[in-house]
Structures are given as structure tokens and as C-alpha cells.
Amino acid sequence: MPLLPDSLTAISLLLLLSLSCIHASVHNYAGDKFSRKGNAYVVHGGSEGIYYSHPNLNQSSASSNGDAYIRFEKIIFRRPQEASNFSTGLIYAILFEVDDRETIGGSAYGGQRAICCTSDLAKLGACKEGEVIHRLSATNPGWPEVFGVSFDVNEEISTMQPRSVQITRTGMYNLYFMHCEPRLGDMVVEGKTIWKNPSGYLPGRMAPLLNFYGFMSLAFLVLGIFWFSQYARYWKEVLQLQNCITLVITLGMFEMALWYFDYAEFNESGVRPTGITIWAVTFGTVKRTVSRLIILTVSMGYGVVRPTLGGLTSKVVMLGATFFLASEVLELVEHVGAVSDLSGKAMLFLSLPVAVLDAFFVLWIFTSLSATLNKLQAKRMMAKLDIYRKFTNALAVAVIVSVGWICYELYFKSTDIYNEQWQNAWIIPAFWQVLSFSLLCVICALWAPSQNSMRYAYSDDGSEEFDKEDTLTLIKPSAAVVSTKDVSELRSVQIQSEDGEEDKRE
Is the pLDDT of residue 309 over 90? Predict the structure, then answer.
């Protein structure tokens, strides 16, 4: 009886445990232990999107020579001495494209899917008991690629011959080391595999980000030239807020440049430079934290309708520090560590605090903006009111677009459980960079240094003049009435005194 496909296959469960590719095209295995999945023992060797080979003799870089391959180097399987008194069946290295996942494993009579051949399947003649079930793909000739080694009696180490697999079809490729021998539960795998795309060692889903961060570096450079020229031209009129915006632009320039060099080095060497990655993550986290604090304090009217934050200063600082720590941990784990080593619960645990803090920022910002707008309208400060209304509209648009994109991102990830849309995955992190940069450009346009910058600053004189005008409109009429009344009384007294004097003279 033929092997029946099943949607809830054991190999599908393995793929679900490795939704994201490891962030290194050189995958090192340093004593990785096999874990039991179904009736098999498995080590996940890597998952990456790779474009097909298209040789280009014009490429100058050795890493960009147009070849796409996966190379096995010094792969060693090591078992304990106490488990070396018997020979074994094959220990497999199985390399397959995600569309061919159904070619691994099988089931008898439509029952539970198994990776290793069971006695029922062996009776049907479909496979040999104790071996990993695999068959050739109907759409991709020659795949999956399957290699195997075995242990002889008293042999503690078994070495796989070095080999290179040429990639001739674009796809998401997965590598698993598997075996079906329960007595080899403590066996480990050592060595490395090298995964290469035609343009370099960057994984396929990350390759477009190299050009993206190059473009963003130029965009920040253009924005910086505009802002710093205005800053130098009107430096005598610069507000405290404009100094903060200058800091955010500077941090953004460093962040984009560091990300570009991080991906460029990764593309050339195949190993992600940890130092540059940590600096890029830290600059980005500081930029996001400072940006949120600036927007919050401006929303409160700091420097515009109030000179200080008063008792709110400590709360604002505490919120900023908490957001920085939560974001830094999440970003370091995501970019420096291997994402595929984390379960969904671990990522959810790290992401939830950042999401909650972001929601709190949004709520506090718009509550403060409402109070500031009401205060400006009550005092009839029309110039400040106009710029605050534009600022509020820009923030509202950014929040609406963010919510819409979050919904799309959830839909994208829920419908792409096997990373089949890996070629478009780079758009998700790129969008957030573009959105934050766009909002920064709007803020720079609203608060660009100019000869009239000081009219947006808080001023005791301006407030007092406004109060005096209100006071004068209330006091002047009564003062005039009092003066007229006093003059009339004085005149009557004078007339009476003059009449008295005339009577005396008579």
C-alpha cells in the first residue's frame, strides 16, 4: 500500500520548531545533542532561503561569484564509549526544500505519520524497519539530498565525507540530522555547514536588507545635511526640543551605518560580527527610547506651555528606562542569538513587555496632547496651537498605520508557517524603519530651526502679557467709572465750599 500524505506530519512539526533561519551562513555544531521527535532522533542543522545559482564572471568579490551551495565540512558524529559495543544503522543528513517536506516520513493505512520506518510499514514493503523514510520529489528531481554514515563495533566516532550540494532552484532549504536508534540517545554532532547565496553569505531572507540599510543611510545623510544646515544658520534661535531632534538624527545615522556594515561583513565572511551587531542594536534601542521620551514630553507641553515636568519627571524617566531594558534584551536575543533556538513562548515572553510599554506610551502621549491642545486653545496661542494640531495629526496617522501593519504582520506569520514567503519577509522589519523615519521627517519639518523658532518656546513674558490683557479688559471700565465718580464728588465739594464762603462774606 502506498504511503499516504498527512497534513499533520512529524516533519511538519519539526519545521514548526524552526520557523526562523539561524542568523549565520556558517552553521557550527558544537556537540549538539539529538532530541526525540516522534519516533526519530533529530538535530536541526539549519534553515535558509537560497536563490538558484547564476554564475557571473563580472563579480569581483569571492563571496559574490554567482555560486549557490551548501557545503558539509568536518561533520562528526560522536557516541559515548559505553554505547560503542554495537554496530548501527545509518545516521542521516537530510537536506530538502520546504515544498518537498511531504517526502520525509510516511504512515501505514492512513494512521499516524512517522519519520522512522515502523514494523507495519516494513510489512507493506514500503521501507526497511529502523531507517528514516524518504522518497524522491515528484517536482524537484534528485531531491531531497540524503547522506548517511554508520558506526562499527567499538567505534566512537563516525565522520561524514566533505561534500558540496549545488543549489539550482530557489527555495527555503532545511537540513536535519536524524537517526532511529534508541541506544544512541546520547550521541552528538560536531562540525559545520556553509550556506551560500549567489550574492554572498547572507541568508536569502536577509540579503535585501543590505541594500535597504544602504539606502536608509543615504536618507539619514540627506536629512542630516538639511537639519544641520538649518541648525548652524539659526543657532542663536535653537530650542531645547531642536537639540533633542539633533540627537535623534545623529543616533539614526549611526544606527543605519552600523546595520549596513553589519550585513556587509556578514555577507563577505558568512559569520555575523557580534561587536558591530551589538552596537547597531544598542544605538537603535537608544534612538527609539529617546524618540518616545521626546514625543511624550512635547505632548505634555514641556518647553511650550510649561517650563518643567514637575512631579512627572521621575515617572517619565522610569518609563523610558524600563522600555530601554526590555527593548535591548529583545533586540539582542533576536539579532545576536540564534532565533531558531527559541520557542514561541520564549519570544512571546520577550515581546509582550515591549508591546505593553509601547501601548502605554501611546495612551499617555494622546492624553497629554489633548490636555495641551485645550490649554493652548483656551489661551488663544494660535501659532503654537497650529503646530500642535499638525503634530497630533501626524502621530494619529502613524498610530493608525502601525496598527494596520501589525494586523498584516500577524496575518503574514500565521499563514506562512513554513517560511515559504521568505523572499518577502525582509519587508516587515524594513517597514518599521521607513515609518519611524517618515515621522522623524514630519517632526523635522514642523520644528525646523528658523528665525521664528523662539515663538514656540515657553515664555513667562508672553504668558504675563496675555494675563495683563485680560486684566485690563476687566479693570479699565471700572477704573474709568471710579475716576469719573471721584471727580464729580470733588467738584460738588468745591461748589459747596465756595457757596459757604460767599454766605460768610455777605
Answer: no
pLDDT band at 61 (very low <50, low <70, confident <90, very high): low
The three-point CA angle 188-193-195 to 5° equals: 150
Are the C-beta atoms of 195 and 207 separated by less than 8 Å? no
Closest of 74, 68, 51, 27 to residue 176, by C-alpha: 27
* Cα angle: 355, vertex 360, 366; to 5 degrees: 125
Range of weakest confidence among 32-41, 93-102, 111-120: 111-120
No. of helices (H) and no. of strands (E), the chain: 10, 10
Is the separation of the CB atoms in 320 and 289 below 8 Å? Answer: yes
pTM score, two decimals?
0.81
Listing DSSP states for 348-391 in one string gives: HHHHHHHHHHHHHHHHHHHHHHHHHHHHHHHTT-HHHHHHHHHH
Q: How many Cβ atoms from other residues are within 10 Å of residue 351's Cβ?
A: 13
370, 293, 358: which is closest to 330 by C-alpha? 358
What's the pLDDT tens digit per position in 258-293?
A: 999 999 999 999 888 999 999 999 999 999 999 999
* DSSP symbols for 38-62: TTEEEEEEEEEEEPPP---TT--SG
Between CA 243 and CA 277, with CA 219 as vertex, the angle to 5 degrees is 85
Quick one: pLDDT at residue 11?
A: 40
Residue for cell digits 560580527? 273
Q: With a cut of 80, say whether residue 490 has pLDDT above it.
A: no
Residue of higher predicted confidence among 500 and 439? 439
Per-residue pLDDT averaged across 9-27, rounded? Answer: 47
For cell 517597514, name the residue: 431
Contact 42, 14 (CB under 8 A): yes
DSSP 4: P
In our burial notation (b when 16+ CB lie closer than 10 A, e otherwise), range 395-407 reads beebeeebeebee
Contacts of 32 (CB under 8 A, 6+ apart): 43, 188, 189, 190
Tens of pLDDT, residue by residue over 407-418, are 999 898 888 888
What whole-number distance in Å separates Cα of residue 63 and Cα of residue 200? Answer: 5
Q: Name residue 505's amino acid.
A: R
